[in-house]
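Example 3.
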Amino acid sequence: MIEFLENITPSTTMALVIHAMIPLGLILVYALFAIWMERKVAAHVQDRLGPMRVGWHGWAQTIADMLKLLQKEDIIPTDASRFLFRFAPFLIFVASYAAFAVIPFSSGYIGSSINIGVFYLLAITSLLTLSVIMAAWASNNKWSLLGGMRSAAQMVSYEVPTIMSVLSVIVVAGSLNLMTVTEMQSGNEILGFLPNWLIFQNPFLLVAFVIFFVSILAESHRVPFDLPESESELVAGYQTEYSGMRWGIFMLAEYADMLLLSLLGVVLFFGGWNSPFGTFMDGPVWGFFWFMLKGMLLVFVMMWIRWTLPRYRVDQLMRICWNILIPASFVNFVLIALWEMIF
Amino acid sequence: MKLTDIASQGKPTFFKEHQNKLYQSLEDKHTTIEELDVDDPLNSKMILNMGPQHPATHGVLRLLLELRGESIIKTKLDIGYLHRGVEKIAENKTYQEFMPYTDRMDYLSPYSNNVAMCLAVEKIASVEVPERAKYIRMIGSELARISSHLLWLGTLVMDAGAISFFIWTFREREKIYDIMDNLTGHRFTVSHARIGGVANDITPEAMGMIKEFINTFPEELQNYHKLLDRNRIFFERNENVGVLTTENALNSGAKGPVLRSSGYAVDLRKLKPYSRYDDVEFQVPTRLEGDNLARYYVRMEEMHESIRIIRQCLDKLPKGPVRTDNAKQAYPSKDEVYYSMEGMIHDFLMTDTGICPPEGAEAYHAVESPKGELGYFIQSDGTGHPWRMKISTPSFANLQVLENILDGEMIADTVVIIGGVDPVMGEADK
Amino acid sequence: MESYIPIIVLLGIALVLALLLMSLSRLLGPFRPNTNKLNPYESGMDPVGQARERYSIGFYLVAMEFIIFDLEVVFLFPWAVKFTELGFGTFVAMVIFIIILFIGLFYTLKKGTIYFELKPSISNRT
């Protein structure tokens, strides 16, 4: 991709900038789409139509909302810690967007093919916890503080099972570079017709995926683990004091986080940009299509869950993590290694 | 007196004093919670206002919570943010004029409120109500009960986090609104009951709609059961949460479903039947556990029973007038008003003075409203206005249990418990 | 090292974009603060005390536990990558390592420190 850009642009720097901007542009478009999609999913789950006025089936509703948010007053409470209050949205935005650099969007494009890709991704998503606590503490609001504390405890706890399930995949794949992980999943050889996706390669990886999916629900604050911003108890959690575009940035980051973790799941378990039909509809462009399709399917499942289930209480949430998910993920990890050892 | 003195006199010091007293009473409150680490050298307590402007306190209920981390150590309740002085307003209205105010007390089941008030007035003025009117009142009250319980169900599950459920229950409530529209002429604030009967007979369309509703609703109710009865998250959020023992329930004066789910089967429809509740068969759902799940089951079963009652009422519905034919006690029918002189005069007199109970008479009549025992106490001075009217509302009584059962729970449980107790602030604050 | 340059560029662009959005909002939005508007929200009441008082210890215990687990997991990363080449001996070593980790986990679970917060027991209500 970068060579191609260097050929068509006048300078290398410009090629680099364009290269780096591709995921950013993509994710902005995605965020607009996902917010619209969330509303539509919610509406249809609830037997309604959802936004219908702005454009065809309200497709431009999110753009209108963004324009509205831009015109909102930006309020910083008197007792808030002004620097941290302003800095937190930037941090969450940058952290969630920078993580996309190591995601292989198609066989022809990866932002940065570093050989510790997964490690980098997990490290940079930890910054999200930091920015949430920062926002909560800076607001000097009790609801924010409660939400921030909950969120911190939840995100750090669920990070352990997430990392363990990711590690299970690394054991099988043998590389931390997500491009390599994807490439080794090409082909349709399992049982003669199933694609070589990791989820089909090892029965314990199926368990790993379940653990992974539950953990990313918690990591990205989705129901049934949306306690940090549970609107019925904590008003809006750590976002309570945020208004206007600052709040909008949190929103964008949240949706970006959802996509990021879904795409990570796709790369690790569902063959990334590989076509499910072997060489049929294969290639860089189709690869991008398949990749986003699988990612959006996972995002859709997350939305579906959000509009159907109630949420857990905070002690139950912790109990699920420490009593079930963490032991299960460790045991599963050992079993996967054993399986790999034997076969 | 100078103008500035008058201004300083009128300074709103009340609220400040009230706040101070409230915070002091929270500090003084004795709590039976054994704290986890009693030797907590760092004072990590937090005092938090939940309400009046909070998305899940059902209006303007205010809770003052003392928290340690996520656990509630003590709670104080502050109500009265929706006080409108309804009881005082009643003293300046004729009995019939007061009817729309009752709609606005428990605005989720206005029909029951209308009936309760009418029954009290009929008792004090010894008005005989035609049989058909009694049955129509029962049908209306039971529909109101279903409507109220549906909203409770939606908000309970929504407070627990599943927002869609609220919309699903509203789909059914919408049908009841449509029935009310056809039956009474209003969707929300019905004002259908009249002293001495009801405003108008059931129209054939309304009859058809009610019949269709009672045929389709049980199926819908089964769907709710399917969604919630095996939902682990819903169970874990509600089981053993906000446990209210029978003794505590009686001591704090709980009423209605809250009391019944604590193992005390009292239902005024069975205990002191009014209208024609002695003629219909129904059960009083009761649970022993006293937790939020028990409240869920009791209210769900009550909806089944309501359908049963409506079905029997429709079967037994007698023919006849819907309002008593005594022009001194009830409004004459519109036909009479338009086409006869006496009717016109009587209508005028009823509107002007209204029904006049004997001087010095007192009466208390209570009905089983969806939230519990709703009673009207009326003292008459012989004129068309009540001398005193006091209303005993179930929401007010049920709110008293909150201070008791919230202690020791977690902050996430507050919304579920409030949802389970199901207060309506319009009624509690009057 | 060269492959890190796009990441740094991406970080820069994301920051610029966020700044752009914020300054646009400053330009387009009104700015009319008043005392009531700038008060912290506490359900419509004047807040009692600050939000930045000492907070319950339960939260910090979780954080400590997490740090232990996170560090242990970091040790697993290099092993997981070179897993097939290292052979059976290291596998057994890793299993022993995880077992030791587990003993610690079960100890803390038993002690009850890991639960974010236990429900306080209620002696008897009056």
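Residues 2-111 of chain C form a domain with the Methane Monooxygenase Hydroxylase; Chain G, domain 1 fold (CATH 1.20.58.1610). The two ends of chain C are 69 Å apart (CA to CA).
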